[in-house]
Amino acid sequence: MRFLLCFLAVTAPVFSAQAQTIGRDTARTSSTLSLEEAISIARRNNYLYLEALSQRSRADASVRTAFGQLLPRADASLTGLRQQGGRQIFNGGSFGASSDVNQSQYNVGLSYRVNMGTVLAPRVQRANRDAVEADISASSENLRTNVIQQYLSVLQAQAKAELQDTLVAAAHAQVVLAQARALVGSGTQLDVSRAEVALGQTQVQQLQARNSIEVEKLKLFSQMGIPKNGEVSLTTEFAISPANLSLNDLLATARTQNPTVLALRSRERVAGLNVKRERGEYTPTLSLNTGFSGYTYAYTNSNFPVEQARAQATAGRAECIRTEEVRAALGLSNTLTACNSITFTDAMAADIRRQNGAFPFDFTKSPKSISATLSIPLFDGFAREQRVQEAQISRNNLRNQIRATEIQLTSGITSAYLTLTTAQQTVALQEQNSAKARQELKFMQDRYRAGQATFVDLSESRAAYERAESERINAIYDYHKAFALLENAVGRPLR
Q: In the chain, how many H helices and how many E strands?
C-alpha cells in the first residue's frame, strides 16, 4: 500500500499535466479544449483559411513585380558557334574559308520601357493587396463564427445528454416506486410495465444524445482542420448577460470595419485605377536600350590565317615591284628598293597565331551604343477602346455590388439584432416555463408517491418537463448562436 501511494504521488503531476488544455494541433487523450484554443488551431489548420492566407504572398509578389517594372531590365547572354569551312554565296559573291571556324560572343543589354500604365501599376497592385487583406480578415471572421457555432452545438448536445441522464435516473426511480406500490397493493402491474417502458425509451434517448455529442465533436474538429484523437472535453462556458448594444452603433461599425465591404471597396479602387491604366495606353511609350558586347573569331587550323597573311604579303610585294618598274620605265621617280621591305616574318606569324587563339574567352569589345525611342500608338483595331470600356464596366459593377452589399449588411445586422433581442427574451420565458414544469413534476411525483395520482398523470408531467427543459436549452444556445451571427455580420467580436 505504501508503494502504491508513493507511485501515485510521483505520477500525479504527469497525469495532471496531461489533463491540461491542449495547445498543439492534435488533441490528446483526456484533454480539454477551450474556445480560444479551438479558434487558434482552426486558423493554423483549416484549409479554406490557409488558402485565403496564401493569396497574401501572391499579392505581395504582384506589388514587388509592379515596382520592378519601373526599373531597367537587364539581360546577359553567352554564345558559342562552330562553323564548317567552305564557300558561301551571298548577293552573288562568294565568301568563306577552307578552315573550320570557332566563334563566341557575349552580350549584356539594358532596356527600359515606361508609359502611364507602368507608372500606375504599383498603385493598382497595392489596392489589390489591401483587398486581399480584407478577404483574409473576412475568411478569419467566418472561420471564427463557424467554430463558435459548432462549439456551441457540442455544448448544446452535452446539455441535452445531461438532461437525458437526469430523466433516466428519474425514470429508474419511478420503476422502483411502481414496483413498491404494486407490492403493497396500492398499484398495479400495469403501472410497473408502463414505468419500465418509459425507462427503456428514456435510455434510448440517452444513448442517442451521447452519440449526438460525438458526432458534433467530429464536426468541430473538422472545422478545426485536425482529426479527433481521444476524449476531449470543452471548457469554455457561455453566460447570458444583457446585451448593451445599439443598432445604430453596430451599423456604423459594420460600414467601417466589415471585411467584406472593405474588400469590395478595395476592389472598386483597383477597378478605378485599371480604367486609368487602360486610358494610359493612349500616351506615348519611352524605350531606352543600351549595352556592351564582345566577340572572338578563330580558325581551327592556326596555319590557315598565317598562310593567308603570307600570301597577301607576297602578292603585295609583287604588286609594288610591278608598279615601281613601270614608273622607272617612264622616267618617273620610284621607290623600287622600298618594295623589298615588304616581307612576312616569323614574328608576324607568331602574332597571327596568338590572335587566332582568342577563342573562347579572349573577347574583342564591340563599339558601345545607346538608343531612345518614343512611340505613340495611333490605331490598333479598337482594341484599346474595348479594354477601356471593359474596365469601366467592371468598375461600375463593383460600385453597384458595394451598394447592394451595404443594403444587405444593414438588413442582415438589423435582422440579427432583432433575433438576438428576441432570443434573450425567449431565454427568460423558457427558464420560467422550465421552473414551473419542474415544480409541477415534483408535485406530481409527491402525489403519485402518496397514491393521489396515476402513473399516466406522472408520465404527462415528466414529458411536459422534458419539453420545457429541452426548449430552455435550445433557447440558451440559440441566443449564443444569434450573438455569433451578429458578430459575423458586424465583422468583429462584440464581447
A: 12, 9
If you count them, how many residues does the chain have? Answer: 495
Which of 407, 305, 402, 398 minimizes the C-alpha distance to 359?
A: 305
Question: What single DSSP character describes residue 237?
Answer: -
| CB count in 10 Å sphere of residue 255 | 16
Q: Are 206 and 164 in contact (CB under 8 A)?
A: yes
The answer to whether 492 and 257 are in contact (CB under 8 A) is yes
pLDDT of residue 357 exceeding 70: yes
β-strands 31-33, 232-234 pairing: parallel
Distance of CA 197 to the CA centre of its chain: 56
Find out whether 55 and 263 touch, Cβ atoms under 8 Å: no
Return d(Cα 8, Cα 343) in angstroms, integer. Answer: 111
What does 118-187 look like in DSSP terms, one character per residue? HHHHHHHHHHHHHHHHHHHHHHHHHHHHHHHHHHHHHHHHHHHHHHHHHHHHHHHHHHHHHHHHHHHTSS
Angle at 9 between CA 5 and CA 11, to 5 degrees: 115
Cα–Cα distances (Å) from 204 to 199, 201, 210, 455, in that order, read 9, 5, 10, 20
Q: State how beta strands 73-83 and 101-114 pair.
A: antiparallel
Task: Report how far residue 149's alpha carbon sits from residue 477's, in angstroms, rounded to the nearest whole number.
Answer: 9
Provide the residue type at 360 as one letter. Answer: P
Helix (H, G, I), strand (E, B) or coil at 359: coil
Contact (Cβ atoms closer than 8 angstroms) between residue 181 and residue 455: no
For the cut 60, the answer to whether the pLDDT of residue 100 exceeds it is yes
What are the CB-based long-range contacts (under 8 Å, 24+) for 33-38? 33/232, 33/233, 33/234, 33/235, 34/234, 34/235, 34/236, 35/147, 35/148, 35/151, 35/234, 35/236, 36/236, 38/147, 38/151, 38/220, 38/224
User: pLDDT digits over 429-456, tens only?
Assistant: 999 999 999 999 889 888 888 877 888 8
The pLDDT tens digits for 204-242 are: 999 999 999 999 999 999 999 999 888 899 998 888 876
Going through 236-358 in order, the beta strands assigned E by DSSP cover 285-299
Q: pTM value?
A: 0.73
Assess contact for 486 and 420: CB atoms under 8 A.
Answer: yes
Cα 285 to Cα 237: distance, rounded to the nearest angstrom: 65
Q: What is the mean pLDDT of residues 61-78?
A: 93
**Among 415, 393, 416, 136, which residue's Cα sits nearest to residue 262?**
136
Beta-strand (E) ranges in 279-392? 285-299, 364-365, 369-375
Q: What are phi and psi of 186, to 5 degrees?
A: -90, -5
Side-chain half-sphere of 133: how many Cα atoms within 13 Å?
10
With beta carbons less than 8 A apart as the criterion, state whether 362 and 106 touch. no
Query: Under DSSP, is residue 20 helix (H, G, I), strand (E, B) or coil?
Result: coil
